[in-house]
Amino acid sequence: MPILTVENLQVQFTTPFGAVKALRGIDFELARGDILGLVGETGCGKSVTGRSVMRLLDENAQVTAGRVIFDDVDLLQLSEAEMRQIRGKRIAMVFQDPATALNPLFTIGQQIKDVLRAHSDLAKPARQQQAVELLASVGLPEPAQMVDVYPHQLSGGQQQRAMIALSLAGEPEVIIADEPTTALDVTIQAQILDLLRQLQRDRAISVILITHDLGIVAETCQRVVVLYAGRVVERASVAAVFADPQHPYTQGLLAALPRPGSRGSDLKVIPGSVPSGLESLAGCAFAPRCEFVMARCREHQPPLTIVGGEHQSACHLHEGAFND
Amino acid sequence: MAFFSFFLRRLGLSVFVVGGVLILTFIVSRVIPSNPAALYAGARPRPEQVAEIEKKLGLDKPLTEQFRVYVGDLLDGDLGESYHSRRSINTDLRIFLPATLELVIAAVAIALVIGIPIGALAGAYPRSVFDYATRFVAIAGVSVPSFWLALIAQSVFFSQLGWLPLGGRVSRDVSLFYPIAAQTGFYLIDAAISGNWRAWLDALHHLILPALVLSAYPLGVAIRMTQASMLEALSETYVTAARAAGLSRRVIVFKLALKNAIMPALTVIGLSFAYSITGAFLVETIFSFPGVGKYVTEAVLNVDFPVIIAVTLVVTIFYIAVNLLVDLVQAWLDPRVRLV
Amino acid sequence: MKAKARFRIEAGSSAWFLLRDRAAMVSLAFLILLAFSAIFAPLLTPYASQGRGDPDLKSKFKPPALEHPFGTDGLGRDQAARLMFGARRSLSMGLLVVLIAIAVGTPLGMAAGYLGGWIDEAIMRVTDVFLAFPPLLLAIAIAAALGASYINAVLAIAVTWWPWYARLARAQTLVVKERAYIEAARGIGVRDRVIIARHILPNIMTPIVVQGTLDVGTAILVAAGLSFIGLGTQAPFADWGVMISDGRLFFLSGRWWMSTFPGLAIFLTAMAFNFLGDGFRVAADPRLRRLL
What we know:
- The complex is a heterotrimer of chains A (324), B (340) and C (292).
- By secondary structure, chain A is of the alpha/beta class.
- In chain A, the strands form two sheets. In chain A, strands 6-7-8-3-9-10-12-11 form an eight-stranded mixed beta sheet, with helices on both faces. Chain A has a four-stranded antiparallel beta sheet with strand order 2-1-4-5, covered by helices on one side.
- Chain B has 340 residues and is mainly alpha-helical.
- Chain B is 77% helix and 0% strand.
- Chain C is built from 14 helices and no strands.
- In chain C, helix 2 runs antiparallel to helix 13, helix 8 crosses helix 9 and helix 12 packs across helix 13.
- The chains are: A alpha/beta (324), B mainly alpha (340), C mainly alpha (292).
- Chains in contact: A-B, A-C, B-C.
- Chains B and C meet through helix 1, helix 6, helix 7, helix 13 and helix 14 of B and helix 7, helix 8, helix 11, helix 12 and helix 13 of C.
């Protein structure tokens, strides 16, 4: 049974320009102990999905439909007080830029201890002890000193480790990592991804990894969900998607990925850009940019269809293939 | 050490600014007036008086030489002599300056103690009724003419309610029968030191109304600045991160965000000081409060120019010192400056 | 219909946000009304000559009544007329101070920000010196040195005010300067003067106008303060500060109206400029719109 299930999630933002649809109904499951990649270009709804699960959307955003099932409970139905018992304690979050996600005026230790106090019955000395252990577990050197250090005294990679330690303080079952390596140097990126894999392995934590980088997904994840314009266009195991991408958008993303031996000129770019949430989409959202576009693509939205095993894709191209 | 180098730089800037202030006041007193000697001689001087002043100020000498003498006198601590009373300005200021400082400190304290929590609360609950009410109060505070508010306050608290005295620093019977032994010039401190509680209460009674009136403008500024920085702090990612960690709103607002919001809000201490001083110049006369404000407004009426320039100089140097202190405290509290 | 379409205000634009700000719109209406009554004061009151200072000793100290809705003062002058004529001076003092301060401060600030180097350093250190004085105090000294008059009060306050605009203009220029089109213009050898006037100035005007609007209210307060202590408008003319000063000795003895109404006029006008400026500020800044 999956640990987290998202069903038909729809979110819109109220703006002076009208209602902007950020999520147009997305479905996916996070299996226990998995790392699930949530992929797409900027503006496709990845971060909104993460925020919706945590119920941390801005005030002008409303969830208009859907369910987020975690441990047999729909998180969207919980009161704010009940939700606080979920946040940090059962589902935690890691942010893109640790330099802004850590409070500059409190030491790393103080910030971890605040979370411990919110979510555990530990006494003061035990909280101190626990903070040191958490910092050690994310591979920070000299953790006993690190507790008394302010964020600006750490390097970017160390800050992100501290942020991860913070997210582990409530001993969560799920971590939502929103572009956790985007703000970091390439070499540091690999270390942070290693750390996430290690946590998944050693602590049996399930991870949703939000990223725009399919390369990271290939290295880190077991399964992947590809989002486009607030819809799921493809979902499958990482192996299946990389071996045999079904949706033209996924194919485009993969073609844009640098591979060993490829030169700059070999990289393909998908022409055009993601449609804004202001537009109502009659057919397939990707149709205007798709090289295989057909007449019906512009009129009917293609449903997610099984293209083999647990591999699903939302494209009219598949209909012919499987009906035959 | 980052703080030490910051300290040196900031101190250097203050010394430079004091130098600039000396030059500017010199220009205002000797270069701008078409006939400086006439200004220094006061209203309707006799020609021989003007000639005497000209000689005394060295107005026949080149400006650089005049400036040297001007600065030299100030370095000796000599602020000159009032034309009107013929008293040494140093002596006058020793009495009037502590009175105004006592008043201004009380006003600043009121503005900060009320303004910062209210502003923070309004910033924490944007678009609430409290937020709108607070914004209205803040704008009213920075819009009301202090000298008019002083009249209204006198009418309400003296004439109508009879709760507070009309003006002055102490009542006549207290100054006659329980005189305050002057040491610091701050009545509340002097009376407390000598255990003269009757006078202490009386001085406090006289301080309340002018201090409240003076605090209106800095209160408005304190509310607005704290509210803005609270709003700013609450929109930061670390607040979202704290919410994602399941911390309660109370902890997030009053522990995490408040500390970040207070930092920029500390700047209002310096500003509050400036605005209270400004108010003092307009309000002290109305309250017959014997401070530098009343001293200067009377000097304006008597065209007593040496007094105006001396007070400008002394109060400005006080203000520079306050700002220096605020900046240093602010830097010391910020780990990003204190630690490398 | 066509003309109407041309002036349509798009949803979400700055103007749209401003129009939705009720406090700002009420303030704007109030200020327009006030400016109107100041400009057309001679036509709006039967006591125009009293507004300019002529006494009418037969009707001294009349409390507010139908004939004199705001009462009369110690020289029998109709206070409603005095208020309207006083508005001319109080409003113009506030506006002039801010306009002069902007006219002096903005070019200096742009030069400092754009040219950098020792010019920047020199201009900024000069602003440091001016801002080291508590507001009003330097203005009192300068006004006293120049001699008490309406225009000297304006100049004295403006001298203490321009550094704020120099700093604001400098900060904005530093931001705008980094934009690609300005770097491109420099790259192809467009003269600095042209770049500053054509590309930088239009891009930094918004924050300056916002600050200017907020400042007019404060400048009116400061000007009234100078007049109150006798360094501004001189008799027989009066601005609102002078009127408060004239009435203050009678205030507690029952003749409350002489100081009350001019004080209220300053209060409401300063509030209106603050609300309007706040409205501008929020409308012009998408980030603030989201926060507020």
